[in-house]
Amino acid sequence: KATIIVPDYPLAPANTYKEVFQFMEPIYKHILNQKDNKKFILMGDSAGGGLSLALAQKMGEENIEQPNQLILLSPWLDVRLENPKIEEVEPYDKQLNRITLRLAGLAYAGIDGIDTYFVNPIDGPLEKLKNVTIYTGTYDILNPDVHVLIQKAEEQGININLKQTEGAKHVWMLERHKNTYMAEEAYTEIIQQI
After folding, report:
1. From CA 37, how far away is CA 51, in angstroms rounded?
2. Could you give the 3-state DSSP secondary structure of residue 42?
3. Using an 8 Å Cβ cutoff, are 161 and 132 in contact?
């Protein structure tokens, strides 16, 4: 009994964050206008997780209603990938690497976006966010930035619910068919949370 909307937003390198936000903001606002006191859950994985956070941050700055829940699955929070702890995790991550991600991040940022929170939501405003849950695995090179975000939130007195799985890789919860890294358990937990 849920309506699920999966926006097919424009992708890099053909598009930058500007085109993505031009596409996503009207959808977000349209959903709010249609929900009639029903729950609105914003969820994204990987780059979509970073986009979901940045979108919620931007809506907060505009004093637009926040989603009832914001669920981020292995989110990409900083395309600059400068966190020194990434180097410690990278040997365990068999899916992602910094070189490829940096190229994709530069394409998404375009000529003027590399330091904006629209591209790096780790730097964005947190005070309007509510009911945020992050799922992350310790064998994901994006994991160290999750901890930076959590620390920033704690310093501001903002609670982010961290669900971390030891030894899990990037978006492991989507690999239920392989039954690895407790994927079924994570998937079931997300469904219950919703």
Report:
1. 24
2. strand
3. yes
